[in-house]
Amino acid sequence: MKIPITPNIRMLMDEKNPTKILQGGSSSGKTWSILYRILIGCLSQWENETIDVVRDTMPALRISAMKDWEDILKKHGIYSKNMHNKSHHEYRIKSNLVRFYSSDNEDKVRGPRRDRTYFNEVLSMKKMDVEQIMMRTKKESWSDYNPSETFHWFYDEYADDKDNFFHKSTYKDNPFLEKEIIRKILKFKERDLNMWRIYGLGERGAPKSTIYPHWKYAVNRGGRDIKIEEFEGEELYGMDFGFNDPTTLVRIRYHPKGGIMVQELLYQTELTSENIVMKLEALVESGALKRDSTIIADSARPEIIRDIKQAGFNIHKTKKGKGSILRGINFIKQNSLFVTKDSVNLAKELRSYKWKTDSQEHVLDTPIDLNDHLMDAMRYGLEKKSRKVKTVGTGIVGRGPEE
User: Fold this and answer.
1) Which residues, including other chains, have CB under 8 Å from residue 117's CB and lie 6 or more apart?
2) Who is most buried in 78, 204, 284, 305, counting CB within 10 A?
3) Chain-centre distance of CA 255, in angstroms?
4) Where along the chain do the CATH 3.30.420.280 domains lie?
5) Considering the entire predicted model, what is its pTM?
6) Contact partners, residue 230, CB within 8 Å, separation at least 6
7) Is 400:213 a contact under the CB 8 Å cutoff?
8) CATH class of 7-200
């Protein structure tokens, strides 16, 4: 078995500092480098060790580091069902145990000590949870993140601490990156300098450009996840169409005093009208959607709306016009915004949804038209509610992130 030792993997193997911080742009290979480092350690360097891989939510972990770990093992012919405890999300490599869990799992966070910990996308995690796990990590930790935030507690406490090891990487550090992904990353340079700085150069974002800094995961005071059915309010649905880009559908509960709660129901590319109807039928079967529920959808694709309507669904086109985007954004910014924990792509878009900036880094009144498919669907679903809001651009400031 031959494992490719890239410069990033070699760096992680040679570096003796126990606290390693990896800040990087899009597709810079941070996750794979750390997972390969863990695999090499389990195969040839460590004995009877417990290594934890942690992220903010289990749905996010499943489609990121957990999936990458399994892909790496299968790629090298190491994967064995006998060594994989799927119910506990654990994998045994020789005498070592690799465990995957989310930081909202109180029993694991405050449980027995582990030898090493990998914090995947650490900026999305709570300070208290990271500190509890750090205190219970005996030998080594790795933390990675895209620097989409301008200010963050993790920068202050760990990344800027000169006693820790800090490394910045970009797409250029990933020798296996496909040309199409490189092309998409380079597009940031043309579309928005702040996005280019974050995802192209791997540097921290400019201030004030995040559009919805106030969103939160929906949990009660005891930390239990709240389902959207528990949130009192009017039920709404919004839909955005794509093919190469994803087709998206969100479920919304809105209350004038309680705010907005959103759940991602659909996020998938290469869907035809027939495929979309099948997805909607499945959602009806699951109870997440009723056939007579009102869906407000992207008006740019009337032929898809027609096909869905002919299949018996209550779907209508959105009313676009001058100022409609800003009006919808301002309405959402004026309300508390809660997201269900299973809405992985929705959370990702909320973190990256930003205002355009000019060459002088002034924030403009135009959102970046990129990776905003669920953002559009959410705005469509709330269209009728937002019509009473006066359009005043970024002068309306939403609530900042709460500790």
Assistant:
1) 51, 52, 53, 54, 133, 134, 137, 140, 141, 142
2) 305
3) 25
4) 216-393
5) 0.71
6) none
7) yes
8) alpha beta
